[in-house]
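Q: Hi! First time doing this. I have a protein sequence and I read that you can turn it into a structure. Is that right? Here it is:
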Amino acid sequence: MHQQKRQPELVEGNLPVFVFPTELIFYADDQSTHKQVLTLYNPYEFALKFKVLCTTPNKYVVVDAAGAVKPQCCVDIVIRHRDVRSCHYGVIDKFRLQVSEQSQRKALGRKEVIATLLPSAKEQQKEEEEKRIKEHLTESVFFEQSSQPENRAVSSGPSLLTVFLGVVCIAALMLPTLGDVESLVPLYLHLSVNQKLVAAYILGLITMAILRT
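A: Yes, that's right. Below is the predicted 3D structure, encoded as structure tokens:
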């Protein structure tokens, strides 16, 4: 004698309910978001009937607020926001989806979905970015920075060689140029223009080196 396979008795309120999404966000400045879709999935081997409840039913229109879902199927539930006013900005409403077997009245499971009306998507992105930065700064852990003495070269001023070269260059610039007949300086101490340019260039380099020390 074959025994009929009995389905295990389901405990009231313990059946997992699969709904997507779990949060509805309506934007006042974007009319396309005033209509949202909830998808209820039934992964079980038996049919389910469902009912949609709301904390503020006067603000929404729910198309097919009650119905049935076949085994391993899904159904879309359309929700429209019909009271888009600034006084409702930021207010969190809740929808509750209750499911039960078609032959029973008791609710086997329930799932809540929150709904929020915001003024603008851009404003929400700005607030989320500010919140993210604030949380990041709050959660950051700072450690004490150990300090180490910096090895700096002690400036001792220009060297004697630098000073000597500077004096030589100045003296070279003060000597007469070749072709200066009226000079009393001996002819072998007369310098050409190119030699004086070289002396002036070296004197400039020495001056820069002294200023940096």
